Amino acid sequence: MRVFTILGPSQSGKSTLATALANLDSAAGKRQEVAGVAALQPFSFMGEDWAAIDIAGGADNLAQAGPALAASDAAVLCVPADAGAAVLSAPYLRKLEEAGIPAFLFVNRMDQAADRVAEIVAALQAYCSHNIILRQVPIREDGQVVGAVDLISERAWQYQEGKPSALIELPVAMYAREQEARTELLEALADFDDTLLEELIEDQKVMPEEVYDVATKVLQHNDLVPALMGSAENKNGILRLMKSLRHEAPDVGVALERLSQDGAVVAVGCMADLVKHLGKTVMVRALDIGMGNGAPVGGAALGSLTGIGGAVNNAFQAGDIGQAVKSDHLNLGFAYGPEGAAPLPDWAQPRPSTFRRVITPLNERDDARLSGALERLAEIDPALVVGQDEASGHLLLNLQGPLHMRRIKQALKDEFGVEVEEGQVPPALRETISKSVQIQYRHRKQSGGAGQFADVVIEVKPLPRGSGFVFEETVKGGAVPKNYIPSVEAGAREALAQGLNGHPVVDICVTLKDGKHHSVDSSDYAFRTAGKNAVREALSEAGAVLLQPIMRVHIHVPSVFTGGLVPVVSGMKGQILGFEAEDGVAGWDVFETLLPMSAQDNLCNTLASATRGTGWFSTDFDHYEEARRADFAEA
């Protein structure tokens, strides 16, 4: 079985393209869907079994592309016939280049195109390090695209609504344009083939069969990105795309080679879902050896494996895809050898999940079930990161965006019967002091049982930002015995765990300077209590200063949007550090800023709006700085 992934921006016609390709030769097989995320469409073409993995558009779904591409032999980037919308394809071009997978560009809805195809390709080229080469040029009548000329075979095809294109004579008016474009194509291919280069230099006639061979080699080596065109809705240009995939896309051995650099790989999961009455299901592609029910994959035997397309349950060949059920050891995001698993390469991993939400069950009785449900969902969704908010103690979800959150909530309700409510993450505030204070505190208890006595003199003083907590002692003459000093420190730490405003206290030094003890009534407990209460009194006198966490944020954005980020970041009280072209990525900048953590969720929404859903960011803690309560009322 041959496998390819179709991806591209929302509303570019990906699903329509997958359906049109699947119905070219015979009736398509049963479509397997993960609602709102991806679908796998098996079909046959010219006696061969194929499967198209259709990734839903939108920034929140791009995380699903990595596993699909890892299991694929090639990819098709479906883009709208609009030069102004080229930037929407930038994240997908970037993903394909990071994967190093052979890819075709398909300009869809050419029958409705207002822009010249050269303008569309030029706009896309700004975001692609590989040279995009036209394999076809459009035929226009009265400004409308009515067909296309194949630049290798030099055949002309006229579009027919709802039917495959019809072969026609090359229009005389197209001859000069066709020759110009074909020369550009041959020159681009000749950069990777010495024989073709010699023929062009010697002005020899180049035969189509030879050009097809070079085009196949160039695609399989991922040297160029060929651009085809058509209309999936009207079935125009579809056959040419499918034949190009059939003749030029590499076999499963290339996908295996991409994943086998760090160890033996026999299979990879490309899609996963939770299905009622079945549990977790994982679409698994065999990459190396045959496998079937009970085969050792990932260190355990496969459960029930149902073949997709022409695959037989107990006789999977390399390249075949099957749906694994009762195989709980399989998760999305891993490549599997016979005895173990390894995470997919970095390019196949989701971008950082920076949209944060705390969630709580609507019914308290679902509290325990919620944790287990999220654990199950994380197994099929590599972009879902589950943690715990330190301030509230509630479950904390890190996600790709609001749509991802909506999908998780729906899955919790439908698959586990758990309804939740979401909320913003409370600001992770800290406290410190602004002046030094010295306190003497005596802890004495004589009534009931053994007596307690401890007397301490401490000084608390502020430290530079980022210093944390420091404990010192300058006791002389054994006023506080050495064995009780650690207890004073433990009490101080306990007091600093929650300051006057309920937040941890940082950047402070506590110095034990003097004290007194009793030979009978002093104890570790007494000195710990004295240390804790002394620090609390000192904090009350010193006065609390609120600190907010400041994050160093790296925003990855197509360069056309970089200038628009300045007012966005400034409006969030961010400090702009600068921006520069992103190394090794065409058309992208990295915009660096310092931003309050409380603004992170707002940044997710605002960035999506400012960059039309193409930008993303990563964050690292940088430092704490003094804050005002009004800052959080505004956030």
Architecture overview:
It is a single chain. With 635 residues, the protein is α+β, with helices and mostly antiparallel strands. 27% of the residues lie in helices and 33% in strands. It is built from 16 helices and 33 strands.
Concise account of the structure shown:
The protein is an alpha+beta fold. Helix content is 27%, strand content 33%.
Essential attributes:
eight-stranded mixed beta sheet; six-stranded antiparallel beta sheet; 33 strands; alpha+beta; 635 residues; elongated
- Major sheet strand order: 2-3-4-1-5-6-12-7
Question: What is the end-to-end distance?
Answer: 53 Å
Biggest sheet overview: 8 strands, mixed
Q: What fraction strand?
A: 25-35%
Detail the topology: elements first, then pairings:
Blueprint: E1 2-7, H1 14-22, E2 32-34, E3 38-45, E4 48-55, H2 65-70, E5 74-80, H3 90-99, E6 103-108, H4 117-125, E7 131-134, E8 136-141, E9 144-150, E10 156-160, E11 163-168, H5 175-190, H6 194-201, H7 208-220, E12 224-229, H8 238-248, H9 252-259, E13 267-275, E14 279-286, E15 296-297, E16 300-301, E17 304-307, E18 321-325, E19 334-336, E20 341-343, E21 355-361, H10 367-380, E22 385-388, E23 395-399, H11 402-416, E24 420-423, E25 430-433, E26 437-445, E27 452-462, E28 469-473, H12 485-496, E29 508-516, H13 524-542, E30 544-558, H14 565-571, E31 575-581, E32 588-596, H15 600-610, E33 616-626, H16 629-634
Parallel strand pairs: 1-4, 1-5, 5-6, 6-12, 7-12, 28-29
Antiparallel strand pairs: 2-3, 3-4, 8-9, 9-10, 10-11, 13-14, 13-19, 14-18, 15-16, 17-18, 19-20, 21-23, 21-24, 22-23, 25-30, 26-27, 27-29, 30-32, 30-33, 31-32
Helix pairs in contact: 5-6, 10-11, 12-13
